[in-house]
Amino acid sequence: MSTSFVLTLTGIAAALLVLRLVIPGLPLGRVARRLTPLDLGLTVVGVLGLILHCASMFFRPVVAAIPGSDGVISQINSMGTASMIWYTVPALLVLVGLRRQHWVAFVLLAASLLAVGITMYNGTALSTHLDTIFTAGVMIAATVFLLSAPPWRREAPPTLSASN
Fold it and tell me: Which residues pair with 34 in a beta bridge?
C-alpha cells in the first residue's frame, strides 16, 4: 500500500464529506437513516480498528511509534487467528454501527468488508486485496456521508397550515 493509495482514498472520503456539506438535499430523505449516538460510536471505533489493522500491516513504523503497540503489530502481522480477530471485530463493529442504513448500502458494505477479509487471508494477489480495501473504504465513507443522518440533527417539526 502506497502513500498515494492512502491519499487517494482519503481524498475520495473528503470529497464525499464536502458533497454532504454543500448539497442541501443530502442525505436523501427517503433512504436516509439516523445514527444513534451508540451507532456512531460503534462505527467510529470500528473504523479506527480497521485503520489500525491496515496501518500495522502496511505502515508498521507509523504504528510502532505508539508506545506499547509492538504486541498488537506482531499479532496482526502473524496472519493467524489473532490477526483475524483484530480484523473481524472492527469490521463487525462498523456493520453493527451502520445496521440501520438502507439495506442495499448495508449489503454492499458487508460484501466489501467480507471481500477484504477473504483476500487478506487466502493468498490472493496484493493488488486484488488493495482493490477490496479501497472499495470497502469508499463504501464506509459513502454510507456515512451520503446516507446517514447524525444523532444531533433533528428534522424540523411539521408546519401547520391554517384552513377555513
Answer: 149
> Are 133 and 54 contacting, i.e. CB atoms less than 8 angstroms apart?
yes
The distance between the two most distant Cα atoms of the chain, rounded to a whole number of Å, is 75
The helix (run of H) or strand (run of E) holding residue 148 is strand 148-149
In this structure, the strands spanning 148-149 and 33-34 are: parallel
Instruction: Give the pLDDT of the chain (164 residues) as one tens digit per residue.
Output: 788 899 999 999 999 999 999 988 888 878 888 899 999 999 999 999 999 999 999 999 999 999 999 999 999 999 999 999 999 999 999 999 999 999 999 999 999 999 999 999 998 999 999 999 999 999 999 999 999 988 886 654 444 455 54
Contacts of 15 (CB under 8 A, 6+ apart): none
Name the nearest CA neighbour of 90 among 142, 48, 130, 57.
48
pTM here is: 0.87
Closest CA to 105 of 80, 133, 70, 140: 140
| C-alpha–C-alpha distance, residues 41 and 154, integer Å | 18
Is-contact 106 140, C-beta < 8 A? no
